[in-house]
Amino acid sequence: MKLFFNRFSLIVLFLFCYSATNAQLITVKGRVVAEEGGPLPGVSVLLHQQGAAPKPMAATDQNGHFTVSVPGNARLELRFISFETLVVPVNNRTSLSIVMKPSSTSLKESVIVGYQKKTRETVTGAVTRITGKELQDVPVSNVEQLLQGRVAGLNIQQNTGAPGFRGASSIRGLSQMMVNGSGDNAYLTPQSPLYVIDGVPVDANAGFEYGFQSQGPGTSPLSLIPPEDIQSIDVMKDAEATALYGSRGANGVIVITTRRGQSAVPIVRYAGNMFINFTPQLRSTIGGKDERAYRVKMIRDGNNLSEIYRISQTQFLSDSLNAFFNNSTNWQDIYYQTTYNHTHNVSVSGGDQRLNYKTNLNYYTEEGVVRNTGFDRYSLNQNVNFNPTPRLQLSGYLSAGLGKKLKGSGNGLTDVGAGSNVSSSLLPGPSYFNNVGHFTNSIYRVNDTRTYDIRTYLNIMYELVPHLQLSTNTSYNYTSDQEDTFIPALANNDKPAVYGFSGRKSNLYNRSSINYNNTWKEKHSVYASVFSEATIVNVQNKVINQSNGPNDNYHGPYGFSSYFSSVSGTPDAGGFSEVHSVGFAANLSYDYNKKYVVNFNYRADGNSFAGENERWAHSPSVGLRWNFNKEKLFEHAEWLDFGDLRFSYGVNLRPTTNIYASMGWYDVKGNYNGVTRISPHLGQMPNPFLLPEEVEQFNYGFDMSIFKGRIGLTLDAYTKTVYNMLYSRKLSTGTGFEQTFTNDASIYNYGYEAMLTVRPFKSTSKINWTISLNGAVNRDVVLSLPGGAAQLLSDDKTIINRVGYSATSNYLHIYEGVYRTNADVPVDPITGLPMRNEGKDFYKGGDSKFRDVDGNYVLNDADLQVAGTPIARITGGFSSYLTYKNWSINLNGTILFKRDLLNKALAERMTKLRDPFDDATFVDLRDLDYWKGNGDVAKYPNPFDYYSTSDSYRIYQTLFQEDGSFIKLNAVTVGYSVDRTWLRRFGMNAFRMYTTVSNPLLFTGYSGPNPEAVTDLGRDRLDTYPVARSLSFGLNIEF
Amino acid sequence: MKRLTCIFLLIVLALGAGSCKKFLTVAPPDRMSDASFWKTKSDVESAIANAYGFLFDILTNGPYVPGNGDFRAGEIDAPPSFDVFAAIAQQDLTNKSRLSRYNMNSLADWYPFYQSIAACNISLDRIPDVAALSDADKKQYMAELRFLRAFTYFYISRIYGDVPLYTEAYDRRSLPRTPMVEVLQFCLKELNGIREDLPWQYDDPTKWGVRAARGAVYSLIANVDMWAAGFDKDNQRAYWKEAAEAIQALKASGRFELLPLEEWRRIFKGRTRESLFEFSVNTNYGTTTRYVSIGQWTLHSPLVVGYASSDVYYSSDYIKKIFPVDKSDKRRDLWFYLPYANNNQSMFMKYSNVVNMITSASWLLDDDLIMFRYGGELLTGAEALANLGQEGPAREMLNLVRARAGTEPYTGSGQDLKNFIFLERQRELIGEGVRWYDLVRTGRITDPEQAKSYLTQDQFNRGGWTWPIDEKARNFNPNITLNSYWTR
Prior knowledge:
The complex is a heterodimer of chains A (1039) and B (488). Chain A is 8% helix and 47% strand.
């Protein structure tokens, strides 16, 4: 703390010491019109300064007029979205008439890299920009969903349809390969990119430290940002672009910039949406009479008299005349609903060069397709920019958000009751007289879950002497997570339960920098900056769990009885933490006539939770760019708009784990002989030598735009190696510990990314059509594993990391069909025993034929093989924007190829099928090709042989591994803008109506409902929250 | 202006470099870590209490002390409802289902002992740097910890034979098993290093026996020596000599006495002049145990509530052998009820400090878990002296114990004397978890006349005397081999 205040006060001191001198100013009036068409309102007018960043002065009013006071020799820069930026010399004129052309290339647009605005021409790294306009028409609860399929190499997987939750995201393949949890709950260590919202780094992982056992609301700060308020999003992929964001940027960086006031005349915008979520495709089951017939046939086919006799003892099978057991309940249907939702956004913005402001008010409400789930967002964002003198800029920001969630019976990511729908259709559905625990739990659970998020910042920039600027940015974010859940007695075995979660997280951040820029002889431009960063993050999460309260009228803690009730406290992981970090960075860029660009970056990061002996991480990087279109050779090549080659190399280091991994901790263990015992915690051995993980990337890039922007192409090739990867290493019992974290693993990713933009029509045409396609191929290879191991298994031997193979591969028994008859089962010539599992579980006709890899006629762990990998190799997307007169049709989609999924849902349901006496749901088998009798050649083993011990329907076999490739249309929007001249009568500036269909189509060969809604390890859970299809009607009005 | 900029830059850099280190040192906010622990004397006291407590926890997790010490020798008859004890007596030690009662199957897992060793190793590493301690305090605490670590190694050597030797803090290597004699020699080296560091006995009587003092160190030296002598036969005499000297010094210190046998309940309650080393079981201090002390199964009403008969009893053949019917012995008379009955009406009452006598579910045995006491160690000394041929001093020690038991002095010599001392140990230490180890180290385990659960010489050589080691020990450690006798 002391650190920043010292620095802060120094800067303030300078502000007062130095008195600015101003040159002679003249008043300039101007009008801006489009090349074809009328005046342009809202065009930013900036004062162009040699060597310094252009300073915003004004914005045009609704008639395109503006007025500024500038020196007589000034140069004005005019910027407007989708128009070419223009620089106009004033030359002591007091009236200007300016014509702006629609932009044909993306070259001149500026992007934000390393906290600096740069024109695209001088960017050496791999950066992709998405403008806010592209994100407007789809109502979503989390902005990240909108990025899906838009950036080559950014893989976003919407693995849950639960409103307000966040899917999995990663940039350029795997950065981590440690698997936490097990079975359905296994998940990869999150590798989410760093989000920087308006210059302030934000942790987008909310509650991810708990994996699927998520505690509390789990609402990501990204869910609290209204998409309507976003000006632009920059996605940075390579090490050079992310270098200045320090260690947290090692997984890539996504920079979100919100809108600002630009117009002298206040602009009021309204955007509203009404949307309908439809019940998704459900899993097929078999019901009613058919189900009973199936069950009885199954038992009778077994020819086992005592089993057949059991039918008469199993009431729901035998008592078919009893109305209670003679139903055909569609269990899935009772959980799902079609919902009607809406969202409203009002923004007011305006101001002049001295003072401008923006206020954005947003309301979003969505009811989930699973009953008793949903998400509401309330948010208010404001920013004010104040330039009291041309040399001093102040900007302030305040954002308050409230996210309210209903989680149902799951933890939001999943929904236990709805997904598993465990009952037989023969049983009656829930009713007044018939309690069904999992239904009651899902529907009548009372859930009040809120996330409050306040983000503020103050940014001060001062030009000390020409070309030298000082700036400081201080921000404070505060997030409070609250959850109160009450589970009624009927839902919880007659034990009313209360769950309370209270969490808070604060983040104090300061960045202070000194920038220098200058241009000599109009050719040599230099930009240099030094900055320091300091962050203090505090987290406190507490949980109270109380079960067995007196009755449903007591929602605790009152009513607690120490004898009957039970309580538990703080979650073990992520309960309390305090992290301090400091970063120092330096950056030097030089360009020669914008033709040759070279960039050097260096950053040092210190972190309080890094290993005590390895506290500092150093990340150097370098980037080169050659804009070859500026060479003499292409001087007269009209067809070439621009072309360049880029190269970058960089190392990013990220400190790992937490303070306990490097320091260990001590537990209080009661007392002995009257003295309190305090013991070192002996589960996790601390490792004070934990090194930061090192991510080394090479990036080779190529950009080209030809025929006045009609065709644009960006290619990138990269290699990304992660060294010193953190891995949990198990220890021998003799050490007294169970495990420790070490830095022994490393992984290599390489890949290619391409983005192609085509505009089939001329920019002057009435039809404006932009088609863009992007794709990325990524392969990963494990280079080394802890302790020099050749392979390591995790999640109970179902996932393998083997040196030389893809990381986190599935480790499965190889399924090779079904034994047609008993005679097909191979027999060990030595023992005379047929193929078997360990023990006496012999195989017979109709059982799975697994590959006996070691040829010992026993199927066990030794026969497991590396099968497929759940990490997608090819990802991409496509989009199309077509406008004709007042009409527009937009669509975008996502492509994913080469990913292996485990259809656990099917496997589990087939397993349940194997007990005909258990009143669980029956899968509809009619379309399954299963073994029906001697000699059958079939895809699936005999599902009815329920007393077989061969375990043919085991989950971890290649039978259930399927290709998860898909092509998905994310959204299609049709819009109509009402003619402007007509609108004037009503005092409106713009009026647009549109309708959007989200998730309309999904092409896949996968047999489950949705190849995307699976865990990040590619496991299709039975209780996954389905992704809904929705239809929305929207309205944008501007006054 | 330029100069001002330079100054500004320098100040920023200087401020940054100076306070960064402090800024980046953050202790975990909700727990104690190395950064916040090891500051005060009471921190160290807590760590020491934990070192004792750890072993206490392990040894009271089940009836491990009588289990491997007494039941295994086979003279205690257990009905089928207490099959776990029969399984132990029958050496059916790899049968996890038979052993599952009272956690006896967990004894195969040496992990808890190594947790205790790891905690000692960490404390030993940290204490020298605790500024709040005086040098004398440090010496005292270090000596206690080294004693405890040596004790743990000695204890697990007797259970598992060869064991991995971890002596450094946070050692994550996957070490192989060290030959047992080397482990014992390490223990002796450690103990000899601290033999003068502790007082003979503490002034504070709550520490008597419960916190290691010099008496405990000397007793452990003697016991390690006697155990090592049984295996390292080439150096037997040196071990015996060291053991004899240790016990003679103990005796000469004059700090220890044999309490009148009539006060035996006080002896086993602990913290007496006879205590050398024991783990404190004390309801008042909140350290209670159940199903640990052998008394749990050998008592019935009126000594405990709700049980008309004992669960297990010493077979009368064995009692007749060590306490002949025609010889007077207060130990038989005071510690046994119907010693020759050979049925569940007989009681073995050595451990009978019963508290909370309210219901059959509430009563607890409050006897300390005695590891070494003066009476037993005099006999260790007598044995060592007799082995060395110093029969006079040997008999003197032996007869001190016999006199307390109100029985006539022994005058024999030669092998008879050695045999008699062995039997005297069985009489004095019956039910104290000693018999099996005495049989093993003296080789008597191979004599069917002397040992009911005897082993052939071949079985003994293959490690039949050890307890099987859980397969878990091989996880993540390819260097570990299990005891071959148990992995047939």
